[in-house]
């Protein structure tokens, strides 16, 4: 009889977005005539851009001919893509060596799988509220999690507390779900704290393309000294609409070397390389070619046009919330809008209320942590028409 990983008993029965989907389909089955508008999961609605589609077609044709056909690719990803990503970092003010970039199939997979590199006895510092994958994957391993509060008082941007010891620190900026974004000075404090603690920051930059304020950092590597204490995860899901196409990248600097208990020096870069080449066989060639197209001047301009479209949706949502005197964060440097549930409702109660009275789906704040239990998240990734219709229904209801 196998011994099971009993830590799974410490998880909620289902993953947040699976639970939302379950409740929505149950409602849909009972009310097949009602038109449900989904502003819950942060899934894009704009199709892939012209440049990306062209690159995909071209790569598909290459795969049809023996001279250009490619089988297994290099384990870290193709040079053409890693060089393009490194150049993109440079343009945004961060110096990232292509050799430290690993191509993968999603920031969700990598932020989850990175736990493989760390012992079970590490203390993990996680903001509350935040993207649930960090908590769930550490619970699966049985690690001790220490939460740091993100509240309206600190603009949902918890700062380091020198009296709290941590080995691993998750930061997500622009934040999912609050949309709050750390300033350069704040990230400098995090880097200083991590170095003091000899901790590693696991920095999720999946929403960096939404940063419109040029003073705000888009990468932890814009901060001096970050290469000695940080790993960064980024993805094309939100930047370029790759949620169904799957491509992401993770930067692990070679400076991240820590002593093992037997005195050996272990490099996180080398360990991830070992893990990646053992448990993963790479993002498909055609997808990497499509991703390369995102980083061309024209390709990025097309993606920015889509992001601008989503920004307009954020404005539609924000305008109604303002009109109703509901305070909110996000929506400017982020596709998410985060607000306190009206009428003192708790977030799952508000979820059901909004679904049954307006047929609008959002994400209950409780799914992101204890501090979210009276909050709600709406995404700007919908279509204009449905976002406007959802907010018309919302306006009528309150
Ligand atoms: C979200 O809605 O929080 C995200 O879409 C989830 C994800 O990117 O995995």
From TrEMBL:
It comes from the Bacteria. Residues 35-393 form the Aminotransferase class I/classII large domain. The modification N6-(pyridoxal phosphate)lysine is found at residue 238. Pyridoxal 5'-phosphate binds at residues 72, 107-108, 131, 176, 207, 235-237, 246, 281. Gene3D superfamilies: Aspartate Aminotransferase, domain 1, Type I PLP-dependent aspartate aminotransferase-like (Major domain). GO terms for molecular function: L,L-diaminopimelate aminotransferase activity; pyridoxal phosphate binding. GO terms for biological process: lysine biosynthetic process via diaminopimelate, diaminopimelate-aminotransferase pathway. Coiled coil: none annotated. The keyword Transit peptide does not apply. Substrate binds at residues 15, 42, 108, 131, 176, 281, 377. Transmembrane segments: none annotated. Pathway: Amino-acid biosynthesis; L-lysine biosynthesis via DAP pathway; LL-2,6-diaminopimelate from (S)-tetrahydrodipicolinate (aminotransferase route): step 1/1. Its EC number is 2.6.1.83. HAMAP family: DapL_aminotrans_1. PANTHER family: AMINOTRANSFERASE (PTHR43144). Belongs to the class-I pyridoxal-phosphate-dependent aminotransferase family. LL-diaminopimelate aminotransferase subfamily. Involved in the synthesis of meso-diaminopimelate (m-DAP or DL-DAP), required for both lysine and peptidoglycan biosynthesis. Catalyzes the direct conversion of tetrahydrodipicolinate to LL-diaminopimelate. This is LL-diaminopimelate aminotransferase. It comes from Mordavella massiliensis.
